[in-house]
Amino acid sequence: MSTDFLHGVEYQDIDDGSRTISIASSSVIGIIGTAPNADPAAFPLNTPVLIAGSRVDAAKLVALTTSVDNGTLPDAIDTILDQSSAVIIVVRVDVAQDAAAQRALVIGGTDANGNYLGIQAFLAAEHLTGSKPRILLAPGFTHQRIANGVSTLTVGNQGAGYTDGSYPVTFSGGGGGTGAAATATVSGGKVASVQVTKGGSGYTAAPTAALPAGAGTPTTAATLTATVGIVANAVVAEMIGPATMLRAVIIADGPSTTDADAIAYAGDFGSERIYLVDPTVTKTDDSGNNVIAYSSPVAAGLLAQSDNARGFWWSPSNLAINGITGTGRAIDFRMGDTTCRANLLNAANVATIIRQDGFRLWGNRTLASDQKWQFLCVVRTRDIIADSLMAAHLWAVDRGITKNYINDVVEGVNAFLRNLTARGAILGGNCWVDASLNTPDQIADGHVYFDFDFTPTYPSERVTFRGHMTNGYITSIFSTSGN
């Protein structure tokens, strides 16, 4: 309140009150791949570029002649746009001479100046394009497990005298292999456990594994033994980090070889951010030839279509697919048959493509190890609610913590949750302030807590009709009509 003298009338703005919370965009697709004939000005390497559902913009990725290899991006984007007029963020990487080098370019990292490369470039997408990708894919680079990676790391002698903590394991040798990473946990001066976080590739012999010098000066060195074998796809493994930071999901391609291979692939991961689709699809190219194409762009396009038409809380499963002529291998499906191939794949958390009144995406589940997040639509509901709340409360940062302030935030969040409930996105939700967390010392430190809960809308994955045969209607044959 001003203490200045005034004889007259004045006006003051009162900025209290709850704010409307908008739903964060859910359907933006982020795709990474190669396009060697692209216009370098329109699609510079390792730079997120936005295509707003436009085939005209996408045309700058290809050469005028169809007799050259246009890379992985043009065909994948065409498949996406067959399903939906989606907003797509494209990251183009250079073409390498061999698979390992190409994989390294896709995985990327940062350059000497701190610029993002490869997959990491998605982290700069919102800053450069104004849109944040929610659906990530790398068709052509996610369908294979890696044959010569570090598959296991075991502890023989636990050693003694190390400094307690977690340390990155160093790998050397191995016949030229690279990229393996592991973490060792030291407790009581001994190596208590080790975990392989990245399998790497190209190992023709088992590399030598050891703790770094920063783990202290042991009185007895630990013995770590690495084993070379088949490991998880390195591109998908690397995408989990950016996907988590972006609250995005990864659409990964299965190997499209056998059921066993697809199920083994699914077992490589335990992340709720991965949605695996197997097998590949077939489609007609510009020359009229039937060609093999990856199914991740199909699923990504359907997810964007579903978000725009129905909402982020819907599953993309059971949606008809446009623009394909078949699948890379036959997927038998019979409604109610638990032994058909489609059901066996779904039971192993592998989404597939069935032919039932047209070709359809079939599968709801992620590769989550925690069953709480087994459904893709539930994971995305959590993510969109979280991002919507954070984006809508920039105004609430650095304000004075008063009773009105607390009420305004709680009221705004509850109005948002009521709106989601009315739309069918959630079954209900509530925001409140927990007094046990908002203690005087926390408030004095500028820290305020708001709790909320919600119940997501679950997909009707299994519908059961129970038939009861009865003799109770026999008497109806003796009834006289019209009486």
From TrEMBL:
InterPro entries according to UniProt: Phage_sheath_subtilisin, Tail_sheath_C, Tail_sheath_structural
Transmembrane regions: none
Tail sheath protein subtilisin-like domain boundaries: 231-367
Pfam families noted in UniProt: Phage_sheath_1, Phage_sheath_1C
Residue intervals of the Tail sheath protein C-terminal domain: 369-470
Family: Belongs to the myoviridae tail sheath protein family.
This protein's name: Phage tail sheath protein
Gene source species: Caballeronia fortuita
Taxonomic placement: Bacteria, Pseudomonadati, Pseudomonadota, Betaproteobacteria, Burkholderiales
